[in-house]
Amino acid sequence: MCAAGSKPKPRPAPPARPVGDEGYEVRAGECLNVIADRFGFFSKTLWNHPKNSRLKSERKDPNILLPGDRVFIPEKSPREEVAATEQRQRFRRKGVPSRMKIRLQQCGTAEPYANRRYILDVDGKLSDGTVDGDGNVDLPIPPGTRKAVLTVGEGESKETFALEFGALDPPDSIRGAQQRLRNLGFLSGEPEEKWSPASESALFRFQAQHVVTGDEEPSGVFDEKTKEKLKALHEC
C-alpha cells in the first residue's frame, strides 16, 4: 500500500535494443513495407529471408521495428521469361498492397465508432466506406504510405484523425508503451524516451482500469503483466 497522495515512480523498462548487425539501418517512422518498397522487394521476401530470422523472431511484427534495427537487403536476382520472338508481349508486375487495419474507439473506453461513414485521404487519393459494428476499418493502401488523414462521421459529429504508418515502436520500449497509452486515450502529447509526470499518471490510470483487480493498487511499475495487457488491448 502507498501512503495517501503518493505514488511510486514507474521503474524504467529495460531499454529496447536494436536487433541485427548488418544491412540497412531502420530509421524512425519506418516499417518493413516502407523499406521493402524503397529497395524494390516484397516485404515478405525480406521478412522471411534467413538473415533476417533474428529480427523476425524478436520483433514478431514487420510493422513494428525499432530505430537502429538492421534489415538485410539481398542482391536482386534477374528473372527470365520464355516468350515467342517477333511478337508483342505484355508482362505485368505483381504488386502486393499494404493494408490499413485500425479499430476506432471512444477515448479511454471500449465503445466503438460503429457504423459511421468515413473518408480516407492518402496523398489526395480518397477512399470511403462505413466503419463496421466493432469500429474496424480495413483498407488496402499503397506500399510505402507514411501518412494519411481519416475523417469519420458527418456534419457536427465529424472527426478527423491524422494517421502515421510504421511509426509504432516495440511494446517493450518506453516510447512504445507511451504510444500505446496515447492511442488508447490515457495519454496526450508526444511520447518520449523517458517517463514524465504525465506518462506516469497515464500508466497508473491504465493499471487501475485494466491490470489490477480487487483491492490491489496500481504498482506504477512497467512490468511484464502491464506490458502484455497494454499490447493485447492495443492489438499490437
Please tell me the overall pLDDT: 85
Broad structural category: alpha+beta
Run of helices and strands: EHHHEEEEEEEHHH
Q: What is the terminal separation in angstroms?
A: 32 Å
Q: Please tell me the total number of domains.
A: 3
Spatial strand arrangement across the major sheet: 5-4-7-8
| Poorly predicted runs | 1-6
Total number of helical segments? 6
Backbone shape = flat
Q: Biggest β-sheet: count, sense, barrel?
A: 4 strands, antiparallel
Helix content: 10-25%
Report on the architecture of this protein.
There is one protein chain. This protein is α+β, with helices and mostly antiparallel strands and 236 residues long. Helices cover 23% and strands 17% of the residues. It folds into three domains: 17-76, Roll (Membrane-bound Lytic Murein Transglycosylase D, Chain A); 98-164; 171-236. The chain has helices spanning 32-39, 43-47, 53-59, 174-183, 197-210, 224-234; strands at 24-25, 70-71, 98-103, 117-122, 125-130, 136-141, 147-152, 159-164. The strands form three sheets. The chain has a four-stranded antiparallel beta sheet, with no helix packed on it. Helix 4 crosses helix 6 (224-234). The longest helix is centred in the last third of the chain and has 14 residues, at 197-210. The model is unreliable at 1-6 (pLDDT under 50).
